[in-house]
Amino acid sequence: MRQRYNLGYLFSEGFHSIFTHGFMSFAAVCMIVCCLLIMGSFSLVAVNAAYNFSDLEKDNQFSAFIDETIPQEQARALQDEIEAVPNVARAEFVTKEQAQAEFEQDYVGNPLFEDLPSDVYRDRFHIYLEDISKLAETEAAVKQVEGVAHTNSAPEIAEGFGVIRNIASAVAIILVGILLLVSLFIISNTIKLAFFNRRDEIAIMKMCGATNSFVRWPFVIEGMILGLSGGIVAFFLQWGIYSLVSQAINGTDSIDLIKVVSFQPVAMLVLGSFLLIGLVIGVLGALLAIRKFLQV
Amino acid sequence: MIRLIDIQKSYDNGTKALKGVNMRIDDGEFVFLVGPSGSGKSTILKLITAEIAPSGGRLMVNGYNLNNITPRQVPHMRRTLGVVFQDFRLIEKKTVQENLEFAMQAVGASPREIRKRVAYVLDLVGLLPKSKQRPDQLSGGEQQRVAIARALVNNPQMIIADEPTGNLDPMRSLEIMMLLERINELGTTILVVTHERELVNRFSKRVVAIENGRIISDETGGYYNHETTL
Question: What SS3 class is residue A121?
């Protein structure tokens, strides 16, 4: 036989319980807010880092030098073939004269590089990649293009990006995991307190024939409300803090290199994530808290 | 109907609380269960309400075999019982009416059923005029009547009263027993655990006496005359 639930009763019990031990509920919401803020801030920093890295990645390139026996017009014609190589975003042709001019400009005043004969330079392509992590494969494929004498790249930059990204991801996952556990513990303790406050009522309910799920629901609802409240408060605080920080960064000339992603495009994602995480923490915390008390 | 067949109960600390108890309570009966402290009365009540499981023997309560009852069935079995405690166990922050409504909400009764049944039961125990008062505004006897009303509100087959008059003066105790007798006359089985010899003697009911985990007498219409149990 299925129990009919009076939802009004379950919700009013859940709400009422929050205010019965208001301070503990407030502490639980604050804890969730703190955890979500730290998680959110870290995630937004990661989003910005990824955005800035991808910008840097766009500048990352390697050079493909063309065999000097090939005439310049024929060398220029290799562009289409090079751009057809997978992961090549674009290829930019640089004549040996342009290369010489650039080189001399870079080393102006250095007698060692003055008066170099023009035949030491080669026509070349600066090749920009879509995904820097595939540098080695792309470089090997470009080398296969007929007319390309050799290539010159700096794989350590690509590897550097990969390492930084992996470390950032690992730190984020560990931090988020620890904070989630702390939030779960706090919510669970709050619900335990609520359960303890109502232990006599619960004993009476059980003696009257209430099912475990009927006893459980008000606490789950309480956990949900605490979690969602924490999520909403954290979202608005996150928004405010992020706006202040981005204004500060944008207003500082010395950190022009950093581009800050605007909050609006990620706002719904942040809100959704905060609500979902708050809800999950609240419900899980409640279920963990009352699990062992229901064995009566 | 309750049937205990060779029921034994040992606790983890090695105490043998029941040593082969046989007892049958038929529908509509009024039974006093008497015995000194530590005789096994509370253990029997806990077994009947499925708070604990027997170590041996067979136990049937209102059609449920408690030897192999599943956790999901326990609440449904408990709905066939109404329990009254010595210390009333009312919710202080709720009114009399709310205490009864609470018991019905716990079993998923509809608001319409709750309204009808609560009014009927409060009238039955004579507390309809005090339905909006809180337990602390009532006398001990009235509080116990609320507890009886709460036990009765889900229309159980049986009411189990554990020392229901333990906290009351003789006059109020008599009123409570008379109320239980009246409820019994309306068809509900009553099992009363008590120490009070005079009260038991006043009602010509079946008396089951237990001592050291064994039933030592079971007399229908008998009296509580066993000196050993006092």
Answer: coil
In angstroms, what separates the C-alpha of A15 from chain B's closest C-alpha? Answer: 16
Return the residue of A nearest to B105 by Cα: A6
User: In this complex, which of A1, A200, A208 lies closest to B106 when CB atoms are compared?
Assistant: A208
Q: Which amino acid is at B136?
A: D
Does residue B196 fall inside a structural domain? yes
Q: Supply the range of the domain harboring residue B149.
A: 26-40+80-224
- pTM for the predicted model, two decimal places: 0.68
**Looking at residue B144, which CATH number applies to its domain?**
3.40.50.300
Q: What is the pLDDT of residues B23-47, one digit of tens each?
A: 999 999 999 999 988 899 999 999 9
Q: Is A3 on the interface with B (CB under 8 A)?
A: yes
| B110 to chain A: closest CA residue | A6
Of the candidate CATH numbers 2.60.120.20, 3.30.70.3040, 3.20.20.70, 3.40.50.300, the domain formed by A60-153 belongs to 3.30.70.3040
Q: What is the pLDDT of residues A237-277, one digit of tens each?
A: 999 999 998 888 877 765 566 678 888 888 999 999 999 99
Reported ipTM: the value is 0.83
Taking phi first (over 0 means left), then psi (-120 to 50 degrees means alpha), and beta for anything else, what does residue B4 get?
Answer: beta
Give the count of domains, chain B.
1
